[in-house]
Amino acid sequence: MAAPLPLSVFLIAHNEADRIGATIAAVRALSDDVVVVDSGSTDGTQDIAAALGARVIHNDWPGYGRQKRFAEEQCRHVWMLNLDADEVVPPGLAAEIRQLLAAGEPPHPAYRLGIAEVFPGEAAPHPWAYTLWPVRLYRRDRGRYSTSPVHDRVDLAEGASAGRLRGVIHHFSVRSLGDQLDKLNRYSDRQADDLEARGVAIPTWRIFVELPGNFLKAYLGRRHFVRGVYGFLTAMNYAISRHLRVAKHYERRVTARRAPPVP
């Protein structure tokens, strides 16, 4: 077996016992420093991660960006790979990462990795699946996660360039349609909180177009249509969640206006 790379892999998790094992197992040979920051799982996530050699650290949930920023601080190596607990690095991408880091200092301080969803019943992403390309592999002295409570993106230092690897992470994000909608509903609460905290006011007319517009965005723009009926249903879930974000934002504004003055 090849020696581990000078690379830390970090994950944030909460009740991921059914998925985190595959995530850690896929990268265990790449790193001698796998960090799992758990926000209070009750399903044994921590024990599964520890049994696979990860360092498990508890941190109460502060928001997406802040939790990932906390996880960065726990890493031992300068180079870091971030994964979600429902993402799996396939062997081809693992080999690509090994080749990149084993050859000396890479030409870029950060790299974008493809992320494509794997839906229930699939073993791998559909060949035409929509793929995101965020920065996930980077030097901690050239990029850090944003502290936004809802957006988990790496903000690169001024002048830092990002390369792009060919491999694609497999994202097992959908346990079931009900679980997906429940997760998206909770996320819409956090989005409404964030809009309020930033003083952003979304125009009321958006309420009437958010659902149909985002259904088309997911079904056509993000190519959910290639998954047939199931793709239609997941596109509807996405559209409902985006509608809820605006609806909750509107409700809070109306409620605030109608609230009686404080004596």
DSSP strand count:
11
Estimate percent helicity.
40-55%
Give the mean pLDDT: 93
Low-confidence region ranges? none
What overall geometry do the principal axes of the alpha carbons give?
globular
Proportion in β-strands: 15-25%
Give a short summary of the structure.
The protein is of the alpha/beta class. 40% of the residues lie in helices and 22% in strands.
Can you give a write-up of this model?
The structure is a single chain. This protein is of the alpha/beta class. Helix content is 40%, strand content 22%. It has helices at 20-27, 45-51, 64-74, 91-102, 177-197, 206-221, 228-258, and strands at residues 5-13, 31-38, 55-58, 79-82, 87-88, 110-117, 131-132, 135-139, 143-145, 154-156, 162-171. α5 runs parallel beside α7 and α6 packs antiparallel against α7 (228-258). The longest helix has 31 residues, at 228-258. The radius of gyration is 20 Å and the shape is globular. The model has no long low-confidence stretch (mean pLDDT 93).
What is the element layout, followed by pairings?
Layout: E1 5-13, H1 20-27, E2 31-38, H2 45-51, E3 55-58, H3 64-74, E4 79-82, E5 87-88, H4 91-102, E6 110-117, E7 131-132, E8 135-139, E9 143-145, E10 154-156, E11 162-171, H5 177-197, H6 206-221, H7 228-258
Parallel strand pairs: 1-2, 1-4, 2-3, 6-11
Antiparallel strand pairs: 4-8, 5-11, 6-7, 6-8, 9-10
Helix pairs in contact: 5-7, 6-7
